[in-house]
Each structure stands twice: as structure tokens, then as C-alpha cells.
From TrEMBL:
GO biological process terms held by the UniProt record: methylation
Residues passing through the membrane, by range: none
UniProt binding sites for S-adenosyl-L-methionine: Q281, Y310, E331, D379
Domain of life where this protein originates: Bacteria
Top EC class of this enzyme: transferase
Family from the record: Belongs to the class I-like SAM-binding methyltransferase superfamily. RNA M5U methyltransferase family.
Key words of the record: Methyltransferase, S-adenosyl-L-methionine, Transferase
Residues at the active site: C406
Protein name per its UniProtKB record: 23S rRNA (Uracil(1939)-C(5))-methyltransferase RlmD
Region described as Disordered: 448-479
EC number: 2.1.1.190
Gene Ontology MF: a single term: methyltransferase activity
Amino acid sequence: MLKLQQRVQGVITAIDAHGRGILPYGKERIFVPAALPDEQVEVTIVKMIKEGYIGAITRLTHPSQDRVEPPCPHAHSCGGCQLMHMAPAAQLRWKQQRIIAAAKKEKLSLRIHDVVPSPAAACRNKVIASFGKDRNGMITAGLYEESSHRIVAIDRCLLHPASCDAIIQTIRTLMKELRIEPFDVRKRQGFLRHVQLRWGVRSGEILVTLVASESRFPARKRFVQALLQAHPAIRSIVLNVNRRDTSIVLGSEEHILYGSGWICDELLGRQFHISSSSFYQINHDQCERLYQKAYDLLELKKSDRLLDAYCGIGTIGLCAASQVKEVIGVELNAQAIADARINAKRNKITNARFICEDASRFLLAAANQHQRYDAVLLDPPREGSTPMFLDACARLQPARIAYISCNPLTQLRDLKILAQYGYVCDELFLYDMFPMSTHTESVALLKKGGQRTTKVRRGSVARTQKDRGAHEKRYRHGK
């Protein structure tokens, strides 16, 4: 058993799912942030965890040829960029190899394509900052350290638009001037918890959402006027109230302080109405590449009926509407469906319908009524889909399914389940939606044509309301 502050030496053998180097030491495993495979290191044990220990690099004896100097001074303290110390090309290779290994583990015979790099490093159109106080009582703004509630004060993030970081710093200054207290998680007191910014990449419009612990905002008028004067690109300011003890950023109560409560942006030539809670891919340009790949794989025809499952605000279905006869979008979140309908009208699309319903039950009912869908588009959260949904989808028997995922590991699990229903997948296409992180986006095409090894039972999608509600809740809160 290792002791805290004990120093050990060894060679890093691999990187785990969190981007930490793995250092075997006897029967123990030490997880070392900012370490790369084949590096010889000396580490100090700083923490015991369930899986082993956390070690901090004390001395790097033999660095990897893939090691680079991180361009951000906060790379080793902020929890947002786990791989910034790795050369960009090496990051892409590691992501691909990790998914190849996972496919072998699932015994899936797939061609795993090279990861398509992100067009730009400063790619994020959604920014979330947290607020607190430092040891001197000064208000700080920044991002959480990984696996903690300690705020790393950051004035400039290389992944964020500069205009968004400037707004955060203005808010921090206004808090001091107007005596607005940041929310203290431990004491459960204070006002401002977070600020979420949505930026329209094509429109340049910005939506500011102030996440507070209560609806009473005494300095509201002066705050809003000063913020708008400093940043004319702001189109709307919303006060979101989150009174819960939760890691989920947004609450369900909102008050519009300025503007309409939403901004507009363009994706693949379509205009989209985006509110605080809208799910909208965080990397705009890479999203366009990803969606276009899904449409190309489906080989959509003018005679096709397309089902957009868990459609959110309608981005995927509406961008494909001109290529098909009809689009049906299904989503349990009523606000998202209302936004999808607005987006259809905004784009003058008349062949798209959006239905507020549990997607699994909608698919089951459609199958029982012998309705026909030529293609299904699916983009679930990180947890992947559920046996309930996959079973219902198989009963509907679409000829083609395009499965988009922000977690290829759960996607591979679901592909294996769909294979039991006779859906064949030969290739997985990877996209670097989140540069510098361990995450990868992927898309796969499944075609009906294999031999079914699982019987589709008429009542097999019946689950408890609790199970179904928990799964749908994850969709409502995005990925």
C-alpha cells in the first residue's frame, strides 16, 4: 500500500478515459495527469481513489516525442483540456486507437476511420463560467478544477470566443461595483452561481444567461444597462433561477431581463432560434461536417420519410428537410418542440412535423400501426440509447439508421445490440468535436439486411415510468 507524499518511479503504459497516464506499481495503479505513454517519470502520491492513487509528476526523466508545451497557462489546473500537453496529431491517433480497442472488445468488425480534425481551435459557441471568492475575498470567475468545486480563475480561454471571455470579466467587475455576491456552494448562500453564454457563429449574436440562486435581483437595471453598454453584441439577457443543490447548471425558472430570450444562428444554410436550454452542438463548423456526413451516408431521396428521434430544436431534421418527402421529429421536452416548430416556420419548411412524446413509445405505436419510415436519425446523450428504444426502433424496421454519438464507446455497445436485430454496420466515422479533450464525436450507418438473432417481442419496450423518465431527463438536459 502506498502512502501520501511517497515518491515512486516508473514508466507510463497508457492513458485512461480521463486523459491521465497510468503508472503500474506492483499490484497498484497510479493515475498521473499530464503524463504520456512511454514516459519515464517520478511522481508524488497526492490522493487515494477507488481505482488506485493519483500521482503528480515530480520529475520527467524521459519525455515522449508527442509531448508539447501547453499554450494555456491553466492547462494543468483547469479540468477542461485533459490532452493539451499532447501534440494535436497524437491526440487524434490516441482517440482513434482507443475506439479501435473498444470495438475489438465488443467483438465488432468495423473500419474505424481517422479522426477528422476540428477546423478551428477556438471552437466553442457555448461558454459556462462559475463565480466565487479567493482567499483574499476577491471575486473570481473561471472554470472548475477537474473533479472539484474549486474555481480556477481564468481571464482568457483559448477555446472560447474572445468576446465571451470579455463579457465574463465585465460581469465580474460589475459584481464588485454593485455588491453582487457569488453563490457559495458550501454555505448555500450568495446570488450568482454561473453565467452561460451562447454565441451565434454566423450571426455574431450573444445570449447571456445569469444563473442565480433566487429571482430577486436588486441591482438588475443598473447591471443590465452597464453590460449592454460595454458589449453591444448582446441580443438578450436572461435570469435563470436554480435553487437546487445540483451540479446541473440551469434551473427551470427563467425571467427575460432584456431582448427576446433567444438568439439566432445559421447551420447548413438554415436559421435556428436558440434559447438558454436549447441543445445546439458546441462546435459549429465541425457540426456542419458531421451532419452532412450523416446525410451522405443515408443517401436520402425525395421519396423518403425521415424520423428524427430525440430531435431537440430540430437542427438535424430541418437541415435534411429539402432532401426528403417528410421529416417527423420526436422529443419529450415541450420547450424544445416549441422551438423546433418556430425553426420550421422561420425557414419556411412545410414538410416537417414535430411531436412532443416519448420517442420509444412513439416508435412502438408507429410499428403497431404499420407506419413506414425509410430512415431514422438518432443522436442520444453520452449514456447512449436504451434497450427500450433500440427494441422499438427494430420493430419499426427502417431500411437505414444513422447513429450520431458524442460517446463512441456507448455507441459501439448499441451497435452490437442492433446487430442482433439484423442491422449491419461496416464503418465508424470520427470527428474531433472537442479539441484538447478526451471526447470524440462519431457517426455510423446501419442497414437492414443481416440475419436477426434476437426476437422482437411485442411488449418488450414496456418499462417503468421511473426508468423511462430518468432516461428522457438526460436528453432534456443535453449532453
